[in-house]
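Tutorial, part two.
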Amino acid sequence: FFMYMKKHHSYTQAVLSGRPKIGKGEAGLVNPPVDRASTIIFGDQKTLEAQRTDQYENLIYGRYGTTITKHAEDAIAALEGGQECLLCPSGVAALTLMFMAMVHAGEHVLIPLPYYWHCGNIAELLKRNGAEYDFYHSQNLEDLKSKIKPNTKLIHMESPGSNTFEVQDIEAIVKIARQHKITTSIDNTYAAGVLCRPLEWGVDIVMQSLTKYVVGHADVVMGAVVFNKPHSKILHVTHEQLGYCVNADDCSLVLRSLRTLPLRLSQSGEGGMQVADWLKQQKKVAEIIHPGCKQDAYFKVYKKYFSGPNGLFGFSLNIDHTKVPAFINALHLIKTGFSWGGFESLILYQRPKDIEYEGREFDRSRPYFRLYIGLEHPDDLIADLNQALAKIK
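Running the prediction step on this input gives:
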């Protein structure tokens, strides 16, 4: 069934995956029923013993998941093109699972600059448990090579990078890692398993914050780790040790949302391009950072790995930082808030000093914004931005 799924376009795959298999002469529901359970009861001792021989596949206890959990995991695995998936309570939890499973006391992990800030928190957690970490410049392969140690066990990637959208050369990094027999991982939230499939480029482990594009309705927090058989045991064991579990209702919402994921992602991406193109022409806009735009420094490598644009990008304004509240407050359709990937457009003000790093500095006199374009019509969003900018002198 898995191989059958891989042959389809992402639109078709999103519709078919994670659903009950109904054969000829059978009848059944389109969507799997929501089976809430903590306790599983067995008819006799023999059945209990038989089920517990594979606790990660069989139903034995609610924390390991119910039938709908398995459907959701199958769906996300198929989306990313992997053999297995483990669901986690959040995207940060998925990152934690991946790092804790693959990097142990006395071992070393490399994390790219820039990085999602919680990666730094997790790295400190690893350090407290006896592991080591270093940061490498995401665009400098020589810097990466120079920081590989004999005890390096994991090279992590995040592409595009958080907030500043640097795109990594996945194929080249995988090649370096394999030469040193090092496992690779990547945060694939931006691509949502649709725009880019890193496992097909040789990456070992992929994680996503499903909270963003996959769920897409601002009502579920969840993460996922997708992998192939060689890493199955250690990830399953660590997942159990961390006590991770997700509830059946949230799994049903993940499956509901997955059916429209490619359509929503396409609409968001196209809308984002239209808004970015309009912003480029505004005198008050100093810079647009969008790897899907041809003028962007990372467009060439983005085009290699990604099949289309995304609705999330950054821009800076030629205004004083003191004018930021007036600009944000003047927006009507575009709200300010954390997260992204839902149906609603969002903007987030970020100080350049908080997102820059060595080798990527920003003009600190200019305020920087992360803008996410949701499913509203781009013309309405442009009008909203236009009237807000007009109020700022």
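Residues 1-6 have pLDDT under 50 and may be disordered. In part three we will examine how such features are distributed along the chain.
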